[in-house]
Here is the input.
Amino acid sequence: METERGIVTWLKNPDRLVSVDEILPNWAAQTISVSIDRPQQHAAPIELLGRIRRAWGTRLKRSASPEGFAGEPCPWDPPCARDIFFNEQFRFSPSHGLPKPYVFSMDVERHRLDIRLTLFGAGIDYAYAAREALVEALRSGVSWEEHERPVDHSVANAEILTCRMAPQLPDEISPDCTRLRISFLTPLKLRGADPADQPSTLVARMARRTENMLRWMGCGLEAEWAHYSQAWKALDYHIADEGRELVQQTSRRQRKSYEVEATRLTLEVEGNLAPLIPFLACAQTCNVGGMADAGFGRFRLQQGRD
Here is the structure.
């Protein structure tokens, strides 16, 4: 019988159990921020993030174990960065796997692109390797337009920001607020229930993603899920479906392009939000839905309208 790797055993058996009230003090995230001169022509931001992520993964292969290079579980202890960031460590069920401990995001300014790579929990241990690979990728590994060959590009700034515990809510939002607006900044990719028909499932996904990401922080969540399920189902929702869109993506492994169907939403929520604030605050840092690591499902919490 094959011996289970140490990283998998650790992720399956958390060091400690925490309550929902203890989520925020135990949450650990660190952001790598890189600024580059904005190309004159470039793909849509969400498509560009997918290309940046692929180029980053290619650069991580250079320091990977032979197994990690091939996309197989890395036998090193600790594992190589490629394994941590690109291999699924285990699955809770046939359709439900542990999330990878990072997300990409980007803001487009007039003359520059601000690209951020946020690492979670044990992923923070690989911050320097992640930054070096990202800078290399941005300098010479990204095709900024469709079918364009990668070209050399200057990197204006690359810094690892201070590690942050306890995600911060906007000053305008109090822990006992009763109205929130959830505005999606990037397309949302979901399977299963349509949030336009069942908006409470979106909050449920945020809670589950927070629970699963906590594993990378050595924590398991001890929660009465029936209580929290009742809490998000009891909220009043008003959803403005801003329409569906097709996002172009490229599979380097299969050497072909494909389209991802996604939607953009703005959600107004009213009711007893206090029990759910830890889930919402953490999910705001790690996105929600499919392909969250590649920048999909990024949202902002704002004070709801009266």
Remarks:
- The radius of gyration is 19 Å.
- The longest helix spans residues 45-60.
- The mean pLDDT is 88.
- DSSP finds nine helices and 13 strands in the chain.
